[in-house]
Amino acid sequence: MVMTLMIIIVSLTALNLERAVFDIMGGIRERTSNDLAYLILTLLTMGSVVLSVPFLRFYFLIIYRRWARRT
User: Cβ distance 38 to 17 under 8 Å?
Assistant: First the structure.
């Protein structure tokens, strides 16, 4: 469940930020109503990336323990 949410957040960030990044890199920086949304989405993405490694380890540990219990 958590990994699915992380994947959705990273995907949304990758799809929505390309226009904003090109505007910033091109020197066109006008304040928009979406700036706060981009900031929140970026923070959620950074958190998702950082937490993805511990969650993957945890999921693999659960899978291994259930597999070991069956054999």
Answer: yes
The whole-model pTM stands at: 0.53
Would you say residue 67 has pLDDT above 90?
Answer: yes
Distances (CA, A) of 41 to 17, 22, 30, 49, 63: 9, 17, 19, 12, 31
Six-digit token pair at 4? 């699915």
C-alpha 49, offset from chain centre? 5
DSSP letters spanning 3-47:
HHHHHHHHHHHHHHHHHHHHHHHTT-----TTHHHHHHHHHHHHH
